[in-house]
Amino acid sequence: MRIIYNKNIRLNMPETRTIPQRIVVAAHPKLPEAVSEAALISGHFEQQGLQSSHGTFDDIRLRRQIKEGRADLLVAVGGDGTMLRSAHLCAPCGVPILGVNLGRLGFLIQVRRDEWREAIANLLKGEFWTENRMMLRAEHWRAEESLGNWHALNEVVVCRGQFIRPVHLSASVDGRLLTGYMADGLVASTPTGSTAYALAAGGPILPPELRNILLVPIAPHLSVDRAVVLSEGSSVRITLHGSSDAVLSVDGQVPVGLAENDQVEVRAGDYAAQFIRFGDPVYFYRNLTAHMNQNPSIGLPR
């Protein structure tokens, strides 16, 4: 495992912090314990004299409240997948997110289930800071026609589809060919995503405050097998060669089918995800080392 440290940590820690007054508490819809915990958290905010509403991410009323600018904070109750959904919803609207972990890993979440009362107390005292995390913008091109675009907090992946055979890809950075790949796929990741699929594919771990795109091949065969960290501000264009069965997947959402010579352009997103944090930035490394080699999804004893 390789961790790239950044000693010049850049924080968004303004001297005057705005205390949120209008709170939305959203739970993972398939976690009953998250739904009940969301109700408790919402009630706690109301006891502090704040406006609060709660429900699940499937609740159209809550989603509209965020999109119409009638919320100052979203409290996301669940796991890392819940945080991804929160970022997709809140980042375009500039609404910060406070995560409460009821999931398995919680790489993106600082506050555990038994800590949210203390976290809310610190929030209302202004003892917090806002962490801005880069997102990616991916656009699918076919014969000079744009077929769609998406934003990702973790990664954009071009990979083989249902058939178990490698795909032939090439990657160009800022209009210049970087290299070709014969592999199961290629991951274009944010620093946030460097602890997700990119990590599983053998990539390095990047501090979340960076704004670099990370390229990691998946199971390359007789081709470049090293991850590449692009310069801040660079974009990458991934081209599918041959008639291989391949798909585009953005943050693990429903895959999009690709055809020969299709291209996927990936660059820094138009907005960033904002996470509410407490204490110093070293939380990221403490959280990281606490989770490494302890993946509960495997079912092995710790």
Major beta sheet, strand line-up: 7-6-17-14-9-10
Fraction in helix: 10-25%
CATH class of the largest domain: Mainly Beta
Q: What class would the helix/strand composition place it in?
A: alpha+beta
The termini sit apart by 19 Å
The radius of gyration is: 20 Å
How many β-strand stretches?
A: 17
CATH superfamily of the largest domain, by name, is: Probable inorganic polyphosphate/atp-NAD kinase, domain 2
Could you report the average pLDDT, rounded to the nearest whole number?
91
CATH architecture term of the largest domain = Sandwich
Q: What's the overall geometry?
A: elongated
Number of helical regions: 6
Approximately what portion of the residues adopt beta-strand conformation? 35-45%
Number of domains: 2
Low-confidence stretches at least 5 residues in length (pLDDT < 50)? 7-16
Order of helices and strands: EHEHEHEEHEEEEEEHEEEEEEH
How many strands, which pairing sense, and closed or not: the largest β-sheet? Answer: 6 strands, antiparallel
CATH topology of the largest domain: Tumour Suppressor Smad4
